[in-house]
């Protein structure tokens, strides 16, 4: 090995020693909740496919039709040649779904966060961010020239203490996940909006895990009845919307600004017709049929009841169930034992969660059957 690569080898060895080494595992997906590995069937409990729409016949058909009609690739970035007709339809549908003037599609939720935060804030500005916000928000803050201040998780006293010491007239952006990706809890958006109004701050909410879930699927703004009161609603097309991509929804002026300033929007080839067609179809299914989200919440209540019957005190408000076991080793051991039972439930370790907060993250889907859920919870409880 070349000497100048040695330091990477050392870092990898350290990761192994700390039980923090990670690598992707290849599966063959066969349905919304089942995958094959080495010719054996596994139950998927780690996917963000909350409504199971990745395998919905209409969604698949829409993607196939889009390829047949418009081809496979978009051929260019959005502002050069890649804005095919489906973008206009999806952006219109997203704006309506989110009850706001305009929406803008990015290539991923990650890129939407990074591009939006860094474009909206500059030298003399401030970003005020929840300590448990998603990595893509953190990276957006790092890329911005603004000063970032972190408030304790969902702690409104801490948020207010920060806000009251900042200059009233400077741009201040409060940014939060609505549903926290590794804890499944919900940010107090109504209180955040109140403080933002009091201290003249902008608000940005990341609805990656709320779209298709909270507020009959419309997201956190509908859940809290805050229509017109949140400046930027961000989302992803990659979770409940069963495809790939991210989006930002807000007032026309903000979207116009982002089109011209958000570098992750401007300098990357646009998503393919199949990506956009599948999320457009998924969105239309959610908008026209409450039963999908209802089924998800039936499953969430069912899991809640199972935990309660076993005297485990967990209050579930979203499909994300964190089982915190603290040690990296224990999280890995439980994940491995569940794997031996043909259940895939990932061990989440630092840096995804803080030190000593390693956990199993269970993700419930509308497509899980009650038998699936009963089996998983029974096996999981035996290992705790
Ligand atoms: N925000 C949150 C809260 C997320 O959990 C994720 C993905 N895990 C993202 C943004 C990024 O979305 P995408 O996967 O579409 O890049």
TrEMBL record:
Belongs to the class-II pyridoxal-phosphate-dependent aminotransferase family. BioF subfamily. Catalyzes the decarboxylative condensation of pimeloyl-[acyl-carrier protein] and L-alanine to produce 8-amino-7-oxononanoate (AON), [acyl-carrier protein], and carbon dioxide. Its cofactor is pyridoxal 5'-phosphate. SUPFAM superfamilies: PLP-dependent transferases (SSF53383). PROSITE patterns: AA_TRANSFER_CLASS_2. This is 8-amino-7-ketopelargonate synthase. Pathway: Cofactor biosynthesis; biotin biosynthesis. It comes from Megamonas funiformis YIT 11815. It catalyses: 6-carboxyhexanoyl-[ACP] + L-alanine + H(+) = (8S)-8-amino-7-oxononanoate + holo-[ACP] + CO2. The keyword rRNA-binding does not apply. Its EC number is 2.3.1.47. The keyword Transferase applies. Keywords: Biotin biosynthesis, Pyridoxal phosphate, Transferase. InterPro entries: Aminotrans_II_pyridoxalP_BS, Aminotransferase_I/II_large, AON_synthase_class-II, AONS_Archaea/Proteobacteria, PyrdxlP-dep_Trfase, PyrdxlP-dep_Trfase_major, PyrdxlP-dep_Trfase_small. Residues 43-377 form the Aminotransferase class I/classII large domain.
